[in-house]
Amino acid sequence: MIDHSGQLHEVRAKNLLLATGGAGQLFAITTNPSVATGDGVAMALRAGVAVADLEFFQFHPTALYHPGIPRPLLSEALRGHGALLRNSAGERFIDEMLPRDVVSRAILAEMLQQQTDHVWLDATGLDHFAERFPTIYSDLVASGLDPMTDWLPVAPAAHHQCGGIVTDLSGATSLPGLWAAGETSCSGVHGANRLASNSLLEGMVFGPRAIESIAGGAFGPRPTGAMRSVLGFADSADSSLSIGGVALPVPELGPTGPTGKPDSAATPESLRRYIQQAMSTDAGVQRSAESLQRVWQVIGQTLAALDHMDPQVVAVAEVRNLAQIAQTLVAAALARTESRGTHARIDYPATDPAQTHRLVTGI
Ligand SMILES: Cc1cc2nc3c(=O)[nH]c(=O)nc-3n(C[C@H](O)[C@H](O)[C@H](O)COP(=O)(O)OP(=O)(O)OC[C@H]3O[C@@H](n4cnc5c(N)ncnc54)[C@H](O)[C@@H]3O)c2cc1C
User: Fold this and answer.
1) Which ipTM score applies to this complex?
2) pLDDT of residue 259
3) Which residues face 245 on adjacent strands?
């Protein structure tokens, strides 16, 4: 543990519950706060604890296009009440009520085709906006927008990490004494594509379950929930409903670039922006083998540059965590030669029934 003065302390405990949230900061454009650097998942990866489903990262299609991060959300409720998506020519281009991944890809396609960095959400037809959507309204007013008269600039933003540290239905990980709950975990709730609003419920259910299990003296995982992908599911009442696990090899990172040397002028902040930009461009809403190979190179350069920095500095530790998660995410995205849920490969657009399994590291 690093305290506020930068001192490192060792704290020993029989049980440890990780509840460190997701890793939206992997991407340049995100709805997640600056602390969402996936610290728990990165620690689990380093400890050889089972981690799965990192290739499934949900993008929210309609985050307000805005210079600041995190990006404010313009929720589905607006589209549910009749707000329309329009391209730069003012034309509708997608059924606004399709799932998040489908709408995100349609927006990205429109942005690429029209060489823009956003599309428009037209909520001018909605009545009583300020009363029905007070939080969104105040975000818009703070950005100088009036939803009664202005079309609202929107673009997809990284929103939710569907995978994480594999747990059973009590939050136990593959390492006895280590527990995980919430967005850092892969409990089995989200699969390849989280349903909106399941995350807060997940935290409310599995946080208390982990604490009750610890209090009850449990130690080590059982073959329930996503942990069946690690321990097998021979004891399941209906094994046809269980998703098997396949070991994900994470290859070594190659040389760090044409010169083989990291950039000596790099800072933790510049490295963070470097990897975020690469992840957004090449491993975000859609990916291909070619784009993922480009990110692989960036991850190698980032980790090499970090080797020259003080690992106890929080900013350095956070970028290292992001880079290590990116390494596993990209390895999984390369290995999953299909499109499924939030994972969209433009070179493999179809879903392959033979890949109905979790890719798991640490087994
Ligand atoms: C804008 C937005 C809107 C959302 N709306 C909904 C919704 O309507 N319904 C829904 O179900 N979900 C929603 N979600 C998703 C949901 O909020 C998250 O999945 C959920 O909050 C995750 O909870 P958590 O406790 O796992 O992590 P978090 O709430 O992210 O909390 C993690 C905590 O761990 C701390 N932490 C991280 N690393 C360290 C470290 N190394 N040391 C010490 N502390 C650390 C962080 O500071 C933070 O306090 C939304 C998310 C966003 C960003």
Assistant:
1) 0.98
2) 46
3) 358
Which of 4, 9, 17, 20 has most ligand 1 atoms within 8 Å of its beta carbon, as the pocket-test mutant? 20
Which residues of the chain are modeled with pLDDT < 70? 234-241, 255-264
What is the DSSP annotation of 81-96? TT-EEE-TTS---S-T
In the prediction, which pLDDT does 233 show? 73
> Residue type for 64, please?
L
What secondary structure letter does DSSP report for 73? B
Distance, in Å, from the CA atom of 105 to the CA atom of 84, rounded to the nearest integer, reads 16
Q: How far is the CA of 22 from the centre of ligand 1 (A)?
A: 7
Report the pocket of ligand 1 as residue ranges, CB < 6 Å: 19-21, 31-32, 35-36, 39, 73, 160, 182-184, 197-200, 203
All domains of the chain, ordered by start, with CATH? 18-59+160-247 (3.50.50.60), 62-156 (3.90.700.10), 268-361 (1.20.58.100)
pLDDT at 260: 47
Residue nearest to atom 2 of ligand 1 (CA): 31
Which residue stretches of the chain are H helix? 39-47, 76-80, 100-114, 129-132, 134-142, 198-215, 228-231, 268-282, 289-306, 314-335
Q: In what order do the strands lie in the sheet with 152-161?
A: 57-64, 152-161, 119-122, 84-86
Q: How far apart are CA 179 and CA 219, in angstroms?
A: 10
pLDDT at 226: 95
Place of tokens 């997809």: 156
**Which residue in 101, 160, 102, 93 sits closest to 121, CA to CA?**
93
Residue 310: per-residue pLDDT: 92
Q: CA 304, 50, 182: angle at the middle one, nearest 5? A: 95
Q: Which atom of ligand 1 is nearest to the CA of 183?
A: 26
Residue 280, helix vs strand vs coil: helix
Q: Can you tell me the distance from the alpha carbon of 15 to that of 18, in angstroms, rounded to the nearest whole number?
A: 10
What does each C-alpha distance from 117 to 66, 123, 279, 295 come to in angstroms? 11, 19, 16, 21
